[in-house]
Amino acid sequence: MYHRCHLSTLRLSLFLLLFSLFPLSLHAGPFVLVLSQDDLKDIQNDDASPVDSDSSWDDDEFGGTHVKPDDELDPGSWRRLFEPTTTTTPTSDDSSLGSYYAAVDKMISASTNGDARLMEEAAVEIETAANTEGDPHARSVLGFLYGMGMMRERNKAKAFLNHYFAAEGGNAQSMMALAYTYSRQDMFEKAVKLYAELAEIAVNSFLISKDSPVIEPIRIHNGAEENKEALKKSRGEDDEDFQILEYQAQKGNAGAMYKIGLFYYFGLRGLRRDHAKALTWFLKAVDKGEPRSMELLGEIYARGAGVERNYTKALEWLSLASKQGLYSAYNGMGYLYVKGYGVEKKNYTKAKEYFEKAADNEDAGGHYNLGVMYLKGIGVKKDVKIACKCFIVAANAGQPKAFYQLAKMFHTGVGLKKNLPMATALYKLVAERGPWSSLSRWALESYLKGDVGKAFLLYSRMAELGYEIAQSNAAWILDKYGERSMCMGESGLCTDAERHQCAHSLWWQASEQGNCEGL
Description:
- With 519 residues, this protein is mainly alpha-helical.
- It is 57% helix and 1% strand.
- The chain has helices at residues 50-53, 70-73, 79-82, 98-113, 116-131, 136-148, 156-168, 172-184, 188-203, 228-232, 240-250, 254-266, 275-287, 291-303, 311-323, 329-339, 348-360, 364-376, 384-396, 400-412, 420-431, 438-448, 452-464, 468-481, 496-512; strands at 221-222, 225-226.
- A two-stranded antiparallel sheet has the order 1-2.
- α9 packs parallel to α21 and α23 runs antiparallel to α24.
- The longest helix is centred in the C-terminal third of the chain and has 17 residues, at 496-512.
- It starts with 49 loop residues before the first helix and ends in a 7-residue tail after the last helix.
């Protein structure tokens, strides 16, 4: 029975919270979290608590619509090389990055062609930008080269130092690499701080109404063989199933229109994200009476994704969707009333009513949003116990923002007993959904085009950030393709010994996260 989270029928002492996190985790096996009464704190809600005093709780816990573009959230990303049409227009502030991107572009080209001379040239330029100019993004790539032993000796100490200074300079991917390094060494005090910051970036890019479909990195192998079934579904516009769906949409099938819009909006099934195409298909679907598109149009106007932000239109579309029985739309409506966007003024009572409607109809987002209201005392008396119950119900239904809140509770000791290893693990799950996860999409696109060298480079970069699937994919490419992997060693293409050492290291890291295929 699915109860609203604040009903007395919920007994935390009886909760076995089993997170089957295949959609959220990149681990090879399910992540299981069991909560007992010992994990729960006896909280006096009237007492001063870290919820009031800890700045980590001061952010917009509902998730914001004022989200920066991905290339701003992930500075130094290679996005402008792989998705130039989706990046923001360069400003005078980042004109100095021209030499950095030119060097990275050479490195990518060298990986495609197995050009050791060009790779060495790129490495020298990256090292110059890092050591002479102090560019944090060049430092991040230099750390990667030392960590992998590409055109530089494999040196963990130098890799760590470069990532440390790159992270200090604002490079998010180096923050991921550092956090992963700390967590492997059980240095949870340091790991948890970095993962918390990275998870916050990821959470603030989530939707206000329904949960975003999870864009999972694809495991390109199934044991020793290529995973042909998964790869077939990731060919984007070249996929036969997509072409059939597109044909149906063009013939007036409203459901097909909605699906295509969804694929373009989130970048699913190997498609590049294209908000303009998504908007076009959603509007066509709405004209045919497709209600699910109404909710996504509400999201689009609330976020200004491909259109000018318009909260009034957002509320109109979300209201229409809710009247069609899409209860998750109530979350977006409640959010707008909490913030006072598109309405006359903030109205916490109405917001709570909408969140309760969503929760009463088994929507995890409704439980999550009620949890935030009780956590912060927004329109209700603050009650951390009820908030904790709400987050548990939402997390048990797979709501990613709830994992983030539970991670905070384990981190701060508010609502749950302080547990840094658990906080680190949960933050990591959420952080791995950040904009840097685009590396997986680019790697897969490269692999599907037959560019194994580029795919290996990108999976290797992602592996360094702690993604288990990337670690196993990179290792499998080395084992499967051998010399054709275009693996670069210390002074040229990898020797057999260097390639085997690299594959073993990657398989070992994957095994630490539950994947024992390569051992």
